Amino acid sequence: MSTLRFNTEELVGRFEDRRDVKNLAGKYVMSLLLKKEPTILKDLWSARDDISLGVDGGYYAGRDALAAYYASIDAATKKKAQVLKEVFPEDLGEYSDEKLYGRGPMEIRSLDNAIIEIADDGETAKAFFYVFGLVTDISERGPVSNWVLGSCCFDFIREDGVWKIWHVLYLEDVDTPAGKKWGDPNAIEQFPEMENFAAMKGVETAKPNRPMELRTLYTGSRPFTKLPKVPEPYDTFANTFSYGADSQEAWR
């Protein structure tokens, strides 16, 4: 695609579109950090029914699946805060549920090496980022911090003049406790279960409604595994691949 196909005004508009979708991706990971799961679907995602989120273990396909996924994270967040309040009553005992919400987990995921393409027709966009993160969670083993490495891919769609998230493909290569070998699948077992955090046992988020192995975590014996396809210039979404649950084109 040659930039000569666009006049100066159109090029400025495309620059603004690149800025806006990059900012939207940033808002997505910041919403995870700030525990905005109760509102993230309404605030950032498309109103379409064919939205999807792909993770290592499969796809949350459709609005109902994503709503259930975020609701389960919301419930787990409330549970973690209450457990921390019980473990540290001298520090948190006077906190209201509202002020307590979000205490404990911390999900820092930096989006790097951006590759962004805006469709010629300006109605959709695609983005690929590599992710380096530090994620602290609360489980029956207490607080544990993990190094996280992976990729985060987006399909965006313009709705009523505003960019929204259509599909996300978030795949992890590494999710390992800090200070442990990245390729050790049993590293978490080196952290014993703690009696004070026993109430967290069995607290899990909803599973993908289309379970499948999209990616396996790195180990020393994992064979070479391709990353998802990166965006390439395209004219309209019908003529490019999708990161959504209804297509496997991202792997070809």
Helices and strands in order, then pairings?
Blueprint: H1 8-33, H2 37-44, E1 52-55, E2 58-61, H3 63-87, H4 89-92, H5 97-100, E3 106-118, E4 124-139, E5 142-159, E6 162-177, E7 210-211
Parallel strand pairs: 1-6
Antiparallel strand pairs: 1-2, 2-7, 3-4, 4-5, 5-6
Helix pairs in contact: 2-3
What's a quick, concise take on this entry?
Helix content is about 25%, strand content about 30%.
What is the CATH architecture annotation? Answer: Roll
- Placed side by side, the strands forming the largest sheet appear as 3-4-5-6-1-2-7
Number of domains: 1
SSE topology string? HHEEHHHEEEEE
What does this structure look like?
The protein is an alpha+beta fold and 252 residues long. The protein has one domain (3-251): Nuclear Transport Factor 2, Chain: A, CATH 3.10.450. The chain has helices at residues 8-33, 37-44, 63-87, 89-92, 97-100, and strands at residues 52-55, 58-61, 106-118, 124-139, 142-159, 162-177, 210-211. α2 runs antiparallel to α3 (63-87). Helix content is 27%, strand content 29%. The chain contains five helices and seven strands; from the N terminus they run ααββαααβββββ. The protein has a seven-stranded mixed beta sheet.
Characteristic terms for this protein:
single chain; 252 residues; alpha+beta; Nuclear Transport Factor 2, Chain: A; seven-stranded mixed sheet; 5 helices; 7 strands; 27% helix; globular
